[in-house]
Design brief:
This protein has 12 helices and 10 strands. By secondary structure, the protein is an alpha/beta fold. It binds NADPH dihydro-nicotinamide-adenine-dinucleotide phosphate. NADPH dihydro-nicotinamide-adenine-dinucleotide phosphate (NDP) is lined by residues 19-23, 49, 121, 151-152, 178, 206-212, 215, 217, 228-229, 267, 284-288, 292, 295-296. Residues 19-23, 49, 121, 151-152, 178, 206-212, 215, 217, 228-229, 267, 284-288, 292, 295-296 line the site of NADPH dihydro-nicotinamide-adenine-dinucleotide phosphate.
Length: 318
């Protein structure tokens, strides 16, 4: 497993990072969740991502349990705040009150004194940006957070935060952005990526497999495989279905010969594609079974030649 700098910071994170949205505390049983974390550690993954909102805190608890006994200095733990964690008016957003309370609750659930990366899960236009930035900065000063990041912020939102942090003289700037980014979803390329590259903000690209679609296991005209995310009830299929149209699935199947040619699985090709994009520090994978973690982690260090990247663009651009 290779490690990369998180943006312009000195923090090294594993280029494949493991996250537990929709799995720990939800679709995956406790033992399987613990086994996935063990498989990640065995594969050399040291960076783990979760959020206060995942399974309403249960995902953080499971991650904390899975990492118990692991030397704290040997792993990087990232979590997030902003999305609703309760019904109260202050159980969401990026107010000073919620940021402080949510961070303390995350630390308690994770069983740690600090997180390495604390991320604003979304932008909150109901809170003055300076209030959020100062609250985040205070958490760093208090030793509860090491580095700051955001998720799914637009380029103008990032620009405002960077400018304001400068005006306020805050020492700790945002060094990470966590966007959805994969072969099928390249929204960050025109604006967010160039800004982040210029400002030293690294991308932790989530859903490199488009929730499993890029593994090639969903076929046009066929039902989703039993037990897969798209097959399950609940809220997750709504997300997956967005990318389950037959035309798109046909194009995804046309990636298979390219994966065969480079001697890798389609999942590994998809993860490697993300890792080959400039400005990306890590591909943030999810997994429902330990074997998936091991397979996906096999993309570490895989560099794709230019002609392979070009052919992927051709296949998906059709
Ligand atoms: P992925 O695109 O990595 O999808 C993971 C799912 O794909 C697995 O649960 C599994 O589903 C399937 N899969 C994975 N590997 C394989 C394989 N080798 N073969 C077959 N199927 C496979 O991303 P996720 O949606 O899980 O998200 C990853 C992480 O990104 C999250 O845990 C979270 O940390 C972060 N995230 C952040 C968000 C944000 O707003 N910042 C939003 C969403 C995610 P199954 O087998 O059940 O079909």
């Amino acid at each position: 497993m290779e490690h990369r700098h998180l943006g312009r910071s000195g923090l090294m994170i594993s280029e494949i990072t493991y996250g537990n949205w929709l799995t720990h505390g939800e679709s995956v049983a406790r033992d399987a969740a613990l086994a996935c974390v063990r498989a990640a550690l065995d594969a050399g993954i040291t960076t783990f991502d979760t959020a206060d909102v995942y399974a309403m805190g249960a995902a953080e608890e499971l991650l904390g349990e899975a990492l118990r006994g692991v030397r704290r200095e040997s792993v990087e733990i990232a979590t997030k705040v902003c999305l609703p964690t309760g019904d109260g008016p202050n159980d969401r957003g990026l107010s000073r009150k919620h940021v402080m309370e949510s961070c303390h609750a995350s630390l308690r659930r994770l069983g740690t004194d600090y997180v390495d990366l604390y991320q604003a899960h979304r932008f909150d236009d109901g809170t003055p940006l300076d209030e959020t930035l100062i609250a985040f900065d205070d958490l760093v000063r208090q030793g509860k957070v090491r580095y700051l990041g955001v998720s799914e912020w637009t380029a103008p939102q990032l620009r405002s935060a960077l400018d304001l942090a400068g005006e306020l003289g805050l020492r700790d700037r945002i060094v990470a952005n966590q966007p959805q980014y994969n072969m099928l979803w390249r929204v960050i390329e025109p604006e967010v990526l160039p800004l982040c590259r210029a400002e030293g903000i690294g991308q932790i690209a989530f859903q490199p497999l488009a929730q499993g679609v890029l593994t090639g296991k969903y076929h046009p005209g066929r039902p989703a495989p039993a037990g897969s995310r798209a097959d399950r009830d609940g809220r997750s299929p709504v997300f997956v279905r967005r990318v389950l149209g037959d035309h798109l699935l046909q194009r995804v199947q046309r990636l298979r010969p390219i994966a065969d040619e480079v001697g890798r699985s389609m999942a590994q090709l998809a993860v490697a594609w993300v890792l080959n994009r400039p400005g990306v520090c890590a591909a943030l994978i999810g997994a429902s079974r330990p074997e998936q973690v091991t397979e996906n982690a096999g993309a570490a260090g895989l560099r794709l030649p230019d002609d392979v990247l070009r052919r992927i663009d051709e296949v998906l651009g059709d």
